[in-house]
């Protein structure tokens, strides 16, 4: 019997930097659409991160926002993190914040954009894909 699942790639800044545009869009729950870079995160151990973005679609400040900037900050020694969503205009205009008591996410920080597109809806992308 052959294994149809491939091993996940490590999430590194080098891997993420390779995504400079997208060739395909992937539907995610909560009405989100992922680019190639966001899909890479989701399929290589960070689906939980995309799930956080999807789970708060009904928060009024997020639902009405055209552009969202999500910043994940990881304490690599304590294996904990915080994720914050702002409108990108001000770091003090926080729409959502969540503490993550345990994570094995390998990078100290990550920024993700969620932008409204008339054709696709809310699109999740990496800064390098913007």
Q: What brief labels describe this structure?
A:
single chain; 130 residues; alpha+beta; seven-stranded mixed β-sheet; 3 helices; 7 strands; 22% helix; globular
Give your account of this protein's structure.
- The model has no long low-confidence stretch (mean pLDDT 92).
- It is built from three helices and seven strands; from the N terminus they run αββααβββββ.
- Strands 1-2-7-6-3-4-5 form a seven-stranded mixed sheet.
- The N and C termini lie far apart (42 Å).
- It has helices spanning 13-17, 36-55, 60-63; strands at residues 26-27, 32-34, 67-75, 80-86, 94-100, 109-117, 121-125.
- With 130 residues, it is an alpha+beta fold.
Short account of what is shown:
With 130 residues, the protein is of the alpha+beta class. It is 22% helix and 32% strand. A 7-stranded mixed beta sheet has the order 1-2-7-6-3-4-5.
Structural topology:
Layout: H1 13-17, E1 26-27, E2 32-34, H2 36-55, H3 60-63, E3 67-75, E4 80-86, E5 94-100, E6 109-117, E7 121-125
Parallel strand pairs: 2-7
Antiparallel strand pairs: 1-2, 3-4, 3-6, 4-5, 6-7
Tell me the fraction of residues in β-strands, as a range. 25-35%
Strand/helix succession: HEEHHEEEEE
What structural category characterises the helix and strand content? alpha+beta
Order of strands across the biggest sheet? 1-2-7-6-3-4-5
H/I helix tally: 3
Cα Rg: 15 Å
Could you tell me the mean pLDDT?
A: 92
Beginning-to-end CA distance, first to last residue: 42 Å
